[in-house]
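On clarity, I found the account of how folds are encoded harder to follow than it need be. For illustration, here is how one protein appears when written out as sequence plus C-alpha coordinates.
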Amino acid sequence: MNPLIHPSAVIDPGAQLGKDVQIGPYAVIEDNVVLGDGCRIGPQAQICWGSRLGAEVQVYHAASVGCLPQDLKYHGEETSLEVGARTVIREYVTLARATEEALVTRVGAGCLLMAYVHVAHDCQIGDGCIFSNGVQLAGHVKVGDNVIMGGTSVAHQFVRIGSHAFIGGATAVGKDVPPYIMANDNPLRYCGLNSVGLARRGFDAERQRRIKRMYRLFFGKNSQNVSLALAELAGLVEMDEDARLIHAFITASERGIIRG
Protein backbone atom coordinates (compact mmCIF):
# COMPACT_ATOMS: atom_id res chain seq x y z
CA MET A 1 0.00 0.00 0.00
CA ASN A 2 1.32 3.46 -0.96
CA PRO A 3 1.39 5.60 2.21
CA LEU A 4 0.94 8.76 0.10
CA ILE A 5 -2.38 7.54 -1.33
CA HIS A 6 -5.39 7.26 0.99
CA PRO A 7 -7.05 3.82 0.84
CA SER A 8 -10.46 5.40 0.12
CA ALA A 9 -9.22 7.14 -3.06
CA VAL A 10 -10.57 5.71 -6.33
CA ILE A 11 -7.85 5.48 -8.99
CA ASP A 12 -8.49 3.98 -12.41
CA PRO A 13 -5.79 1.54 -13.53
CA GLY A 14 -5.40 3.57 -16.72
CA ALA A 15 -4.23 6.69 -14.86
CA GLN A 16 -0.50 7.50 -14.93
CA LEU A 17 0.91 8.72 -11.63
CA GLY A 18 4.35 10.28 -11.32
CA LYS A 19 6.73 9.92 -8.40
CA ASP A 20 5.72 11.05 -4.90
CA VAL A 21 2.11 11.84 -5.84
CA GLN A 22 -0.17 12.38 -2.84
CA ILE A 23 -3.90 11.61 -3.10
CA GLY A 24 -6.33 12.35 -0.27
CA PRO A 25 -9.47 10.63 1.03
CA TYR A 26 -12.28 9.92 -1.46
CA ALA A 27 -10.49 11.62 -4.35
CA VAL A 28 -11.30 10.21 -7.81
CA ILE A 29 -8.65 9.84 -10.53
CA GLU A 30 -10.22 8.71 -13.79
CA ASP A 31 -8.80 6.83 -16.77
CA ASN A 32 -6.52 8.65 -19.23
CA VAL A 33 -5.21 11.04 -16.56
CA VAL A 34 -1.54 11.97 -16.15
CA LEU A 35 -0.30 13.35 -12.82
CA GLY A 36 3.24 14.73 -12.83
CA ASP A 37 5.80 14.11 -10.12
CA GLY A 38 4.93 15.55 -6.73
CA CYS A 39 1.28 16.38 -7.47
CA ARG A 40 -0.98 16.72 -4.42
CA ILE A 41 -4.66 15.88 -4.85
CA GLY A 42 -6.89 16.85 -1.93
CA PRO A 43 -9.89 15.10 -0.40
CA GLN A 44 -12.89 14.53 -2.67
CA ALA A 45 -11.20 16.18 -5.64
CA GLN A 46 -12.00 14.71 -9.04
CA ILE A 47 -9.42 14.57 -11.83
CA CYS A 48 -11.41 13.69 -14.92
CA TRP A 49 -10.65 11.81 -18.10
CA GLY A 50 -8.20 13.61 -20.40
CA SER A 51 -6.51 15.74 -17.72
CA ARG A 52 -2.75 16.33 -17.83
CA LEU A 53 -1.23 17.88 -14.70
CA GLY A 54 2.40 19.00 -14.62
CA ALA A 55 4.82 18.46 -11.76
CA GLU A 56 3.90 19.70 -8.28
CA VAL A 57 0.38 20.82 -9.14
CA GLN A 58 -1.77 21.14 -6.01
CA VAL A 59 -5.50 20.43 -6.19
CA TYR A 60 -7.50 21.21 -3.06
CA HIS A 61 -10.71 19.88 -1.55
CA ALA A 62 -13.60 19.09 -3.93
CA ALA A 63 -12.13 20.72 -7.02
CA SER A 64 -13.22 19.31 -10.40
CA VAL A 65 -10.39 19.24 -12.92
CA GLY A 66 -11.06 18.34 -16.56
CA CYS A 67 -14.84 18.08 -16.21
CA LEU A 68 -17.06 17.86 -19.28
CA PRO A 69 -17.55 21.19 -21.06
CA GLN A 70 -20.83 22.99 -20.43
CA ASP A 71 -21.41 23.54 -24.11
CA LEU A 72 -24.21 22.27 -26.36
CA LYS A 73 -21.81 21.80 -29.27
CA TYR A 74 -19.83 19.21 -27.32
CA HIS A 75 -20.76 15.68 -28.39
CA GLY A 76 -18.30 13.50 -26.51
CA GLU A 77 -15.13 14.24 -28.50
CA GLU A 78 -11.87 13.11 -26.91
CA THR A 79 -10.58 16.48 -25.82
CA SER A 80 -8.28 17.36 -22.93
CA LEU A 81 -7.19 19.78 -20.22
CA GLU A 82 -3.58 20.71 -19.49
CA VAL A 83 -2.32 22.34 -16.28
CA GLY A 84 1.27 23.59 -16.02
CA ALA A 85 3.74 22.77 -13.27
CA ARG A 86 3.37 24.25 -9.78
CA THR A 87 -0.09 25.64 -10.37
CA VAL A 88 -2.35 25.72 -7.29
CA ILE A 89 -6.05 24.90 -7.70
CA ARG A 90 -8.00 25.74 -4.58
CA GLU A 91 -11.31 24.48 -3.17
CA TYR A 92 -14.30 23.95 -5.50
CA VAL A 93 -12.52 25.20 -8.62
CA THR A 94 -13.96 23.82 -11.88
CA LEU A 95 -11.78 23.48 -14.98
CA ALA A 96 -13.55 22.21 -18.10
CA ARG A 97 -11.82 20.34 -20.87
CA ALA A 98 -12.11 21.55 -24.44
CA THR A 99 -14.67 21.07 -27.19
CA GLU A 100 -13.77 19.79 -30.63
CA GLU A 101 -12.89 23.27 -31.88
CA ALA A 102 -9.77 23.83 -29.77
CA LEU A 103 -9.16 20.28 -28.53
CA VAL A 104 -7.38 21.41 -25.36
CA THR A 105 -8.09 23.81 -22.50
CA ARG A 106 -4.81 25.11 -21.06
CA VAL A 107 -3.85 26.63 -17.71
CA GLY A 108 -0.21 27.68 -17.54
CA ALA A 109 2.52 27.05 -14.99
CA GLY A 110 2.78 28.76 -11.62
CA CYS A 111 -0.80 30.00 -11.53
CA LEU A 112 -3.01 30.41 -8.46
CA LEU A 113 -6.72 29.76 -8.93
CA MET A 114 -8.51 30.61 -5.69
CA ALA A 115 -11.72 29.05 -4.40
CA TYR A 116 -14.73 28.74 -6.73
CA VAL A 117 -12.90 29.87 -9.87
CA HIS A 118 -14.44 28.52 -13.09
CA VAL A 119 -12.42 28.16 -16.31
CA ALA A 120 -14.71 27.06 -19.13
CA HIS A 121 -14.02 25.00 -22.24
CA ASP A 122 -11.31 26.03 -24.71
CA CYS A 123 -9.81 28.75 -22.51
CA GLN A 124 -6.09 29.42 -22.86
CA ILE A 125 -4.47 30.77 -19.68
CA GLY A 126 -0.82 31.87 -19.56
CA ASP A 127 1.81 31.37 -16.87
CA GLY A 128 1.87 33.09 -13.49
CA CYS A 129 -1.77 34.19 -13.45
CA ILE A 130 -3.67 34.84 -10.21
CA PHE A 131 -7.47 34.53 -10.24
CA SER A 132 -9.07 35.58 -6.97
CA ASN A 133 -12.11 33.90 -5.39
CA GLY A 134 -15.08 33.44 -7.68
CA VAL A 135 -13.51 34.53 -10.98
CA GLN A 136 -15.58 33.12 -13.85
CA LEU A 137 -14.28 32.69 -17.41
CA ALA A 138 -16.68 31.77 -20.21
CA GLY A 139 -15.60 29.63 -23.14
CA HIS A 140 -12.71 30.47 -25.47
CA VAL A 141 -11.27 33.24 -23.27
CA LYS A 142 -7.54 33.89 -23.81
CA VAL A 143 -5.45 35.27 -20.94
CA GLY A 144 -1.76 36.20 -21.24
CA ASP A 145 1.02 35.68 -18.72
CA ASN A 146 1.04 37.23 -15.23
CA VAL A 147 -2.55 38.49 -15.33
CA ILE A 148 -4.35 39.20 -12.04
CA MET A 149 -8.14 39.13 -11.86
CA GLY A 150 -9.96 40.44 -8.79
CA GLY A 151 -12.62 38.49 -6.91
CA THR A 152 -15.92 37.67 -8.66
CA SER A 153 -14.83 39.30 -11.92
CA VAL A 154 -16.22 37.62 -15.03
CA ALA A 155 -15.10 37.39 -18.66
CA HIS A 156 -17.42 37.07 -21.66
CA GLN A 157 -16.73 34.27 -24.15
CA PHE A 158 -13.97 34.93 -26.71
CA VAL A 159 -12.52 37.98 -24.93
CA ARG A 160 -8.74 38.37 -24.63
CA ILE A 161 -6.76 39.76 -21.71
CA GLY A 162 -3.18 40.80 -22.43
CA SER A 163 -0.12 39.85 -20.40
CA HIS A 164 0.57 41.76 -17.15
CA ALA A 165 -2.96 43.22 -17.01
CA PHE A 166 -4.83 43.74 -13.74
CA ILE A 167 -8.63 43.39 -13.67
CA GLY A 168 -10.49 44.91 -10.73
CA GLY A 169 -12.87 42.87 -8.60
CA ALA A 170 -16.60 42.53 -9.30
CA THR A 171 -16.18 43.66 -12.90
CA ALA A 172 -17.35 42.29 -16.25
CA VAL A 173 -14.86 41.93 -19.09
CA GLY A 174 -16.88 42.29 -22.29
CA LYS A 175 -14.15 43.58 -24.59
CA ASP A 176 -10.44 42.89 -24.97
CA VAL A 177 -8.08 44.25 -22.30
CA PRO A 178 -4.67 45.20 -23.75
CA PRO A 179 -1.43 44.16 -22.02
CA TYR A 180 0.23 46.02 -19.11
CA ILE A 181 -2.83 47.98 -17.95
CA MET A 182 -5.25 48.19 -15.04
CA ALA A 183 -8.95 47.94 -15.84
CA ASN A 184 -11.77 48.60 -13.40
CA ASP A 185 -15.33 49.91 -13.03
CA ASN A 186 -18.57 48.93 -14.75
CA PRO A 187 -18.52 49.23 -17.69
CA LEU A 188 -14.87 48.23 -17.62
CA ARG A 189 -12.43 51.02 -18.52
CA TYR A 190 -8.73 51.80 -18.70
CA CYS A 191 -7.37 52.99 -15.33
CA GLY A 192 -3.67 53.44 -16.10
CA LEU A 193 -0.73 51.08 -16.12
CA ASN A 194 -0.41 48.12 -13.81
CA SER A 195 2.64 49.86 -12.36
CA VAL A 196 3.00 47.74 -9.24
CA GLY A 197 2.79 44.49 -11.16
CA LEU A 198 5.20 45.72 -13.84
CA ALA A 199 7.75 46.88 -11.25
CA ARG A 200 7.60 43.48 -9.55
CA ARG A 201 8.45 41.87 -12.88
CA GLY A 202 11.45 44.06 -13.63
CA PHE A 203 9.95 46.86 -15.75
CA ASP A 204 12.02 49.94 -14.86
CA ALA A 205 10.56 53.45 -14.61
CA GLU A 206 11.67 54.52 -18.09
CA ARG A 207 10.14 51.45 -19.73
CA GLN A 208 6.87 52.09 -17.90
CA ARG A 209 6.89 55.74 -19.07
CA ARG A 210 7.31 54.62 -22.69
CA ILE A 211 4.38 52.20 -22.39
CA LYS A 212 2.22 54.89 -20.78
CA ARG A 213 2.97 57.27 -23.66
CA MET A 214 1.86 54.58 -26.12
CA TYR A 215 -1.46 54.16 -24.35
CA ARG A 216 -2.14 57.90 -24.45
CA LEU A 217 -2.75 57.36 -28.16
CA PHE A 218 -5.73 55.17 -27.26
CA PHE A 219 -6.88 56.41 -23.85
CA GLY A 220 -5.48 59.92 -23.30
CA LYS A 221 -7.36 63.23 -23.21
CA ASN A 222 -6.56 63.81 -26.87
CA SER A 223 -6.79 60.16 -27.89
CA GLN A 224 -7.63 59.23 -31.46
CA ASN A 225 -9.85 56.50 -32.83
CA VAL A 226 -8.28 53.05 -32.74
CA SER A 227 -7.31 52.97 -36.43
CA LEU A 228 -5.47 56.29 -36.27
CA ALA A 229 -3.81 55.39 -32.97
CA LEU A 230 -2.61 52.08 -34.43
CA ALA A 231 -1.19 53.88 -37.46
CA GLU A 232 0.80 56.23 -35.21
CA LEU A 233 1.93 53.39 -32.97
CA ALA A 234 3.11 51.47 -36.04
CA GLY A 235 5.99 53.92 -36.35
CA LEU A 236 7.37 52.55 -33.10
CA VAL A 237 6.91 48.86 -33.87
CA GLU A 238 10.37 48.37 -35.37
CA MET A 239 12.06 49.96 -32.35
CA ASP A 240 10.27 48.74 -29.26
CA GLU A 241 9.19 45.24 -28.20
CA ASP A 242 6.39 46.63 -26.04
CA ALA A 243 5.04 48.68 -28.95
CA ARG A 244 5.07 45.58 -31.14
CA LEU A 245 3.15 43.59 -28.52
CA ILE A 246 0.54 46.31 -27.99
CA HIS A 247 0.15 46.89 -31.72
CA ALA A 248 -0.26 43.17 -32.46
CA PHE A 249 -2.77 42.68 -29.62
CA ILE A 250 -5.03 45.57 -30.59
CA THR A 251 -4.77 44.83 -34.32
CA ALA A 252 -5.94 41.26 -33.70
CA SER A 253 -8.90 42.32 -31.56
CA GLU A 254 -12.24 41.14 -32.92
CA ARG A 255 -14.44 42.33 -30.05
CA GLY A 256 -12.72 45.71 -29.73
CA ILE A 257 -10.82 47.02 -26.72
CA ILE A 258 -12.20 48.50 -23.50
CA ARG A 259 -12.90 52.22 -23.33
CA GLY A 260 -10.73 54.90 -21.75
In short: The longest helix spans residues 205-219.
